[in-house]
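New to this. Explain the following:
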Amino acid sequence: MEFKKCGNTYIIRLDKGEEIISCLKEFCQDHSINLGEISGLGSTNDVTIGLFNTKEKKYYSKKFSGDFEIINLTGNISTMNNETYLHVHTVISDYELKAYGGHLNSAIVSGTAEIIIKVIEGEINRKFDSSIGLNLFEF
């Protein structure tokens, strides 16, 4: 991983073999980023994305292997229980240009990933809401 800071924004390049979610979480912890916005694109050959079933209050995940473009990666940074909390979604496409999207659980970079983190001053915590089954912003 390499990066450059421009004002309140970090421009990050992840390299082949790096796992996106764990690298971004570690980056946020190392740079004391408690609130922010994530966007990006790149390529992956090992990715797991999921969907939350609201009736069952449960996530279902699917793993994809092969060559995929990361068409879009978007998310936010907050905290929960005094720890960095990332909420990231993605859209990927395969060699037939079929798209798949959902909550990003993990993705190994196959070529490169270009990520932008915009830091927002302040802190927003999350709290588990048992009626919905999700960790929600707590204001």
Remarks:
- The two ends are 33 Å apart (CA to CA).
- The mean pLDDT is 97.
